[in-house]
Specification:
heterodimer; A: 6-stranded mixed sheet; 25% strand; B: 331 residues; mainly alpha; ABC transporter involved in vitamin B12 uptake, BtuC; two-stranded antiparallel ribbon; 16 helices; 2 strands; 1% strand
């Protein structure tokens, strides 16, 4: 695409947008300029104001000050429907599709084609098919119930809805967060097609490598202000982007490994198998060691973790902690034996979102702190304070509800839960998902320190870079089998990908 | 994301703990209803005798509501409490049970009622926790089945209690307060302690907040769910004994529609139907609101049908109010 100069007039211009919330200024002078047919990346750490800006552009919030020009005219959308009619469609992270309706019904939701109150199925189907073809997804039938589709499929439906409304600007809020690498490639292809046909895309992502791949220009927000406006992606080095986002120098780096010898074997997995998912999985983890499981989504890597932890019942094989066998398919036995997990889906599998930081941290030990069944609030609060201080959880107020914290701090709550428990084996499934760049380095440092203190760590991540950067030893998983086990220093991303490709075709 | 947005207002609204402010509105609503009672019925309403009448009226459904509050807080629901109550009174008053109770002690009837309640609760819990049947359907099944079983055993007859010791035990008014009210107070107090001060209560709230997260934190969630329904069953058993004490009879129609009254009281009291947040104090006030209303209508000779319309309206208003407060909190 074009870099910098444009002959065409901008499609959307936002100037000096300000939005207050009670007690806080979410947007404090944001500028943004989007041209037709470009992929415009919007970057910023959590809390920088990206979500608020999207809501202002899509009509969900009214700005307190500033001007938004759409196709050369000043606009003030009273509600999201008005923005959609004007041609701005938004794909939120929590996809707003209705699982119980069909693809066609979703595409025309809120815009039903009807004659005298009767829906026109054939018209709707024909039009849906056409839009899906345009998105390169003719394989999705308009009759399919959306609940049966994968996250990627749901995104396509969401995009089809935008297209059916003749959207000229589609805002995508972290669309890749819920996708695996193949699906992401597909998403990129669709985004390219959209921009080739003149539709502008505002693309929000935490992953800088993605932005490199598809972005034309980028705008960086920090503390509710625009700190970089429309920089060409190809000419902006990563270090500069990170600096703009965080406000201080530095790139995404992994803390150096310490040359400390590992301790005894803490976790021993022997010939573990789960019918139809994985088999013959054996590995040991020593105290202080970080073992990474590398593989694509669907390779069985998360399932292996969950089975070792007892959340799924293994068909055969053994799991030993410090030489003692752990009862199969029993999470509480695993926890008693000294295992802990920070699951992939923090919000649905890890946290009590509506409850306090304290109650989240003490969830696995309030029983132990209690005296003959009676809770010991003082002891719990002390533990919470200890962990919030140690991990630097912000805010420091242990009474705050977990849902009000950022992704990085939520992850720290889970780490704190297991630190307080005295866990010997810690499983980390996608530890930095939804954690922004600035906070990642801190998370990596914490994980290293954890291992340094003698915890055996097993990590799963869809970002190979992360597995290689953090782990001491890596198991390459494909199709439910361990293809290779090697020191992380002896492997590269390319080698792993090659192995996986060969492994699956064999 | 919205970190900064929600960070600031926390300090400004820290004057009262949320549990107090939430219940404050409820208490005011209750006092308003009492005021209506005073203005329409005067001293007939505001007398010690009438207070005892209201409390006695509230006690049986109140005990059931305490159990229901635990189940609802955990994200479940127990529809079987009404028919299980009837079944427990029938089982405890059959000819055979009464014969043996006469031979030994009247406490045998109490044990019989409690046992029926607990076994029913265990059944519910096992269906929900291990059978993975949604609570609504599992307890609906028991509701229907228990009703049938009670009618079958009693042959649709009312079984009069003739065991002498039983009657004496329930006719006493220690300190001028009826036995039924004492029992309600004990169950409510015990329930409050269990909910707020024990690991049992914390597990209940945690499961209601996020079942999967609680399970992955190492808590034996299935076992706890069984215990929750057993606890609800136990309160049903206690309520059955109270009902037998009040009516000196056992019949399958005892406790009819109590499940609805209990759920209404729990929700009006401020417990979330989706689970994760509950209040025993609110539940007690919820029960009192409904029984006081009934009392006021009776005092003013208004028909039962009008009363039910008012009940329905109160439920809607209470839920709207809850949602309004919840929306303000997140704004």
């Amino acid at each position: 695409m074009v870099t910098g100069e444009h002959q065409d007039a901008p499609l959307l211009t936002a100037t000096g947008v300000v939005k207050h919330f009670p007690g806080a200024k979410a947007l404090d002078g944001v500028d943004l300029e989007v041209y037709p047919g470009e992929v415009h990346c919007l970057l910023g750490q959590n809390g920088a104001g990206k979500s608020t800006l999207i809501k202002v552009l899509s009509g969900a919030h009214r700005p307190d000050a500033g001007v938004i020009m759409w196709e050369g005219n000043a606009v003030a959308f009273p509600n999201p429907m008005a923005a959609l009619r004007a041609g701005i469609a938004t794909m939120y992270q929590e996809l707003d599709v209705v699982d119980g309706l069909t693809v066609a019904e979703n595409v025309f939701l809120g815009n039903e084609v009807s004659v005298a109150g009767f829906t026109q199925r054939s018209t709707v189907h024909a039009r849906t098919t056409k839009v899906l073809e345009r998105l390169g997804h003719a394989n999705i039938s308009p009759n399919t119930e959306v609940g049966e589709l994968s996250a990627a499929g749901k995104q396509i439906v969401s995009m089809a809805r935008a297209l059916s409304q003749d959207a000229r600007l589609i805002i995508m809020d972290e669309p890749s967060a819920v996708l695996d690498s193949e699906e992401v490639a597909n998403l990129f292809r669709v985004v390219k097609d959209l921009s080739d046909s003149g539709i502008a895309v505002i693309y929000i992502s935490h992953r800088l490598d993605e932005i490199r791949q598809i972005g034309d220009r980028l705008t960086v927000l920090k503390d509710g202000k625009t700190v970089a406006n429309g920089l060409p992606v190809s000419d902006t080095p990563t270090a500069q982007i990170v600096t703009l986002m965080t406000g201080h120098e530095g790139t995404l780096e992994f803390p150096p490994r310490q040359d400390v010898p590992f301790g005894e074997v803490v976790l021993s997995v022997q010939d573990l198998a789960l019918d139809g998912v994985f088999r013959d999985v054996s590995f040991d983890v020593r105290a202080g060691e970080i073992v990474g499981l590398a593989g694509l989504v669907g390779s069985g890597r998360s399932e292996i973790l969950e089975t070792v932890y007892g959340a799924r019942r293994a068909t055969s094989g053994h799991v030993l902690v410090e030489g003692k066998a752990v009862h199969r398919g029993n999470v509480s036995a695993a926890v008693d034996a000294g295992m802990g997990i920070c699951p992939e889906e923090r919000k649905t599998q890890g946290l009590l979102l509506e409850q306090s930081i304290t109650h989240n941290i003490t969830l696995s030990i309030f029983d132990r702190l209690a005296k003959v069944g009676f809770l010991d609030d003082a002891a719990e609060l002390a533990v919470a304070h200890q962990q919030t201080d140690k991990l630097g959880i912000v805010p420091r107020d242990p009474q705050r509800e977990a849902r009000t914290l950022s992704g990085g701090n939520q992850q720290k709550i889970l780490l704190g839960r297991w630190l307080a428990h005295g866990t010997k084996v810690l499983f980390l499934d996608e530890p930095t998902r939804g954690v922004d760049v600035g906070a990642r380095a801190e998370a990596y440092q914490l994980i290293r320190e954890l291992a340094g203190s003698g915890v055996a760590v097993v990590i799963v991540s869809s970002e190979l870079e992360e597995v290689l950067g953090l782990a001491d030893r890596v198991l390459v998983i494909s199709d439910g089998r361990v293809l290779k086990e090697a020191d992380a220093s002896a492997l590269s991303e390319h080698q792993i990908l090659d192995l996986i490709v060969e492994g699956t075709s064999a | 994301m919205s970190d900064q947005v929600s960070a600031a207002p926390a300090s400004t609204r820290r004057s009262l703990p949320p549990s107090v402010t939430r219940n404050l509105g409820l208490v005011i609503a209750f006092l308003a209803i009492c005021a209506i009672g005073y203005f329409t019925a005067g001293n007939r309403f505001a007398s010690v005798d009438n207070l005892m009448t209201i409390l006695r009226l509230a006690s049986i459904v109140g005990v059931v509501s305490i159990g229901q509050c635990f189940v609802v807080t955990s994200g479940g629901i127990d529809l079987s409490v009404g028919s299980m109550l009837g079944l427990a009174t029938v089982w405890a008053t059959t000819g055979a049970t009464q014969y043996y109770a006469d031979q030994t002690t009247w406490l045998l009837m109490v044990f019989a009622a409690l046992a029926v309640g607990v076994v029913g609760g265990l059944l519910n819990g096992i269906m929900v926790a291990y059978g993975k049947i949604v609570p609504f359907m599992a307890t609906l099944a028991l509701m229907v089945a228990a009703k049938g079983l009670a009618e079958w055993i009693a042959n649709r007859q009312t079984q009069i209690i003739t065991v002498r010791g039983f009657e004496n035990a329930f006719n006493a008014d220690p300190l001028g307060i009826p036995t039924l009210v004492w029992i309600f107070a004990l169950v409510a107090g015990g329930g409050w302690v269990l909910y707020n001060r024990t690991t049992f209560g914390r597990r209940t709230v945690a499961i209601g907040g996020n079942l999967e997260a609680t399970r992955l934190a190492g808590i034996k969630t299935n076992r706890h769910i069984v215990m929750l329904y057993a606890l609800s069953g136990l309160t049903v058993g206690i309520a059955a004994v109270m009902m037998m004490g009040r009516t000196m009879a056992g019949t399958s129609t005892h406790g009819s529609l109590y499940e609805m009254d209990a759920i209404a009281a729990v929700v009006v009291g401020g417990t979330l139907l989706k689970g994760g947040r509950g209040t025993i104090f609110g539940t007690v006030i919820g029960v009192l609101i409904f029984t006081t209303l009934t009392n006021i209508f009776t005092q003013n000779n208004l028909p039962l049908s009008v009363q039910q319309i008012a009940k329905g309206a109160i439920i809607v208003v209470a839920v709207l109010l809850q949602q309004y407060v919840a929306a303000r909190k997140t704004a």
